[in-house]
From TrEMBL:
Gene Ontology terms, MF aspect: FAD binding; oxidoreductase activity
Name of the protein in question: FAD-linked oxidase
Coiled coil: none
Residue ranges constituting the FAD-binding PCMH-type domain according to the UniProt record: 37-216
Secretion signal span: none
Similarity remark: Belongs to the FAD-binding oxidoreductase/transferase type 4 family.
Amino acid sequence: MLADKLTKLLKHELKDIAHSTRPADLVHFGQDWTRFYTPNPSVIFYPDNTEQVQHIMRVAYENDQAVVPSGGRTGYSAGAVATDGEWVISLVRLNQIGDFNAVNQTVQVGAGVITEQLQIFAEEQGLMYPVDFASAGSSHIGGNIATNAGGIKVLRYGLTRDYVMGLTVVMADGELLHLNKGLVKNATGPDLRHLMIGSEGILGIIVAAEMKLIKPPPAQMVMLLSLGSLAAVMQTFENAQRRLTLSSFEFFSDRALKRVMAHRSLDNPFDDVHPFYVLLEFDEDEDAAMAVFEDGLEAGEITDGIIAQSLDQAEQLWQYREGISESIAEFTPYKNDISVTIDQVTDFMQRLDTLLVKEYPDFETIWFGHIGDGNLHLNILKPDKLPVADFKQQCETVNDHVYGLIRDLGGSISAEHGVGLLKKPYLSYSKSAAEIKLLKAIKNSFDSKGILNSGKVID
């Protein structure tokens, strides 16, 4: 849109809605945690309510103006990046927690409610919102829903999708949809709510949701184990899953541990350095935990272990896992967020490790992931003197090999970070031509002008 036309709209049709064209705000709200694209929005809007979001979309629709919905912008796939003069609609002010229904154990929340804010509210009601991840202190519920966020407790509690009982969505033309309205059973044809969950804002703008809360689990224990090989990771998981009621089973490499220790000034939890580590959280059962440890020690799979003796020590052990993303952020990591079925994890990790040694001999690679749900995070760190564009290009030359392996195993190129701009060229490795054709048809049905988060996920 021409600058003169935008200026006129901001002075007249959109004058009552808070906005900014300050360069610093355009950069800040025009990007997510991806750093491979230059943000270039034309204006940032800060609507105070759903009606203002509707009004912005009506004006955008009338003017064929592309719009990017924006939450906490903690994504890693450039799903919330505005690169081509788009209007950014920041939902940061839609941050109210509304009515709590004690009978249904549900709560109304605005899209701008921070994940941790909902977790704290649930605890105050004697309940739990179990979807959790390292960015819980800054990610928004609306963004979590738009990407179907997972995290560290999917093994036991599932994904964001499992807790969305209703959605309020603004469409491309400003029309408002109220989807499902909190019903447990609703067999009235396809559930449009589930089309919106994980759609990354290309079908509509999520402005509010009704979220399900659950009873908290029994007292939990945390155990950190060091392992001698990749094969031992899955063998330990199988044993732990048989003996324990697991909430989390997280994996990371020695390189990941070193980065966290340096970044957070933490001591090595063990006397020696070990190739791999797993962190387990489970229903309190010390005898079963010791059996897992002793079985692994006897089999030569586990080399050392720590069971937290207090809540403070449990939180300390979790830092070694949760601090990984933060500790490598300054190195502009190229992130591969990939998954296979759980039974394929061992074979997949071994084949991928062989590939990494061959294709990335000069780059530092950081492994971690959610072994219990088949999700691995492979991070390649940019060398200091290598320009970002050159680094991205070099990483992309290896994608055909990495994603080719994913395709062979029937896995996903994006387990929980979404597709956005970064993964869009590789969508065909996970979805067939027929599926992509249907996705485009759905997009056109919801947004015939192609103005909602245009260019993301599919062309």
